[in-house]
Write a structure and sequence with these properties.
Radius of gyration: 37 Å
Order of helices and strands: HHHHHHHHHEEEHHHHHHHHH
Structural class: mainly alpha
Shape: globular
Number of strands: 3
Strand content: under 5%
Length: about 400
């Protein structure tokens, strides 16, 4: 028994027991040189894990998107998603996506909880890197889901084409007469001016149809034409009777002189509207119809009279994207024509058939008080010019 007690006493006084006791009490009895050596050894043991942390952080650093070295460049598959970070910061985010993106931002940037603050520094860095990767993953999925923009249609007219298209549109709308360049049809709340009868609303009036005269007036003024200031404002005639009474007045005479001398420019303005029509129509069409709409548009545009037909119809009845231009929920613009145009028919005949169907449907859906059936024969004559 005495030997056993002596052995325990010797163990308690041994260097090993003293070292263990010192560690428990937080006392450091090792020489500084030895502690430095142990620190280096520990750093070597943890080096691979530390390098992995640095690599994770490097993926989102400025150096990772530098162009100096392919070894550190961000892969092309991730560049679009990474660029969304600054893009979304300066451009509004779609409402349908704002909530999700803001949630990710809040999750990544929220303050550390009490439990998180107690984690070692390495664990905090790992959690921070994981939050970055969650944001990165969300942006990658968002980038893949974003639709690619559709380029505007290229409608470049020569001087001869502009004159020919302008002459045809003038004949369709005004029978080729100068007096027809300023008209106010019965049953309408606005005058129609120019070769394509551009709509001009009086002050305080807005109807279901898109107003186009103010843009044409600015277009003509930009091309150094004699556009007076009153022509840039609202229509100065409030009702049709005022307009008819002033038919030989100085203002309407100036308008007719301006419009009869700018036929080619008005045709170019109409073509400019067609250039922007294709992306607008595709944005509003059903997803399963977009390929058909674009294919039919380009099939018609390749025909000798294709540009004339497209330019004339889009200025005659619009793109078909304005929700106000509907009777019983059905439109009558170029979009609606291209959606039902048979893909197997010859392009121009198929386009004319589809346009006839859409305009016949509009008349059937129109309010009885408007008596639009009286216009249908003239509309059909106009469609027939697409084939001649």
């Amino acid at each position: 028994m005495g030997q056993e007690a002596e052995r325990r006493n010797n163990f308690r006084g041994s260097p090993l027991a003293f070292s263990r006791h010192s560690r428990l009490r937080g006392v450091n009895r090792r020489p500084e040189r030895l502690m430095w050596k142990l620190s280096i050894d520990i750093a070597d043991w943890k080096a691979s894990a530390f390098r992995r942390v640095l690599a994770s952080a490097e993926l989102l650093s400025d150096r990772a998107i530098d162009t100096g070295s392919s070894r550190v460049n961000t892969p092309a598959s991730r560049s679009r998603a990474l660029l969304l970070l600054p893009t979304l910061a300066i451009h509004p985010c779609p409402e349908s996506l704002c909530g999700s993106f803001c949630f990710i931002q809040q999750y990544s940037a929220k303050p550390l909880s009490h439990a998180t603050r107690e984690k070692p520094a390495f664990a905090q860095r790992r959690e921070h890197a994981r939050n970055h990767w969650m944001t990165f993953l969300f942006l990658s999925l968002l980038a893949m889901a974003m639709p690619h923009p559709v380029a505007a249609a290229d409608v470049s007219l020569t001087d001869a084409q502009a004159i020919e298209i302008g002459r045809r549109i003038w004949k369709n709308e005004c029978a080729g007469t100068v007096s027809g360049l300023t008209a106010w049809n019965m049953g309408e709340e606005f005058p129609s001016l120019g070769i394509a009868h551009f709509i001009w609303y009086p002050a305080g009036h807005r109807g279901p149809f898109e107003e186009s005269w103010p843009r044409l007036a600015r277009f003509l003024k930009d091309h150094k034409q004699p556009v007076e200031d009153w022509m840039l404002g609202p229509c100065p005639w409030n009702v049709r009777t005022e307009f008819q009474a002033d038919m030989q007045g100085s203002r309407l005479q100036k308008l007719r002189a301006l419009l009869s001398s700018t036929v080619a420019l008005q045709a170019r303005f109409a073509a400019m509207r067609l250039e922007q029509a294709l992306p607008r129509m595709l944005a509003k069409s059903q997803k399963n119809n977009r390929a058909l709409v674009e294919a039919n548009f380009r099939r018609v545009a390749k025909c000798p009279l294709g540009f004339y037909a497209l330019v004339d119809y889009v200025n005659f009845k619009g793109e078909g994207v304005n929700p106000a231009e509907r009777y019983r929920g059905e439109g009558w613009g170029l979009l609606q024509v291209l959606e039902i145009m048979p893909a197997e028919d010859e392009p121009m005949s198929g386009f004319a058939k589809a346009a006839d169907h859409i305009l016949t449907r509009r008349v059937a859906n129109s309010p009885t008080a408007r008596s639009e059936s009286r216009w249908l024969p003239g509309w059909r004559n106009r469609i027939n010019t697409y084939l001649q």
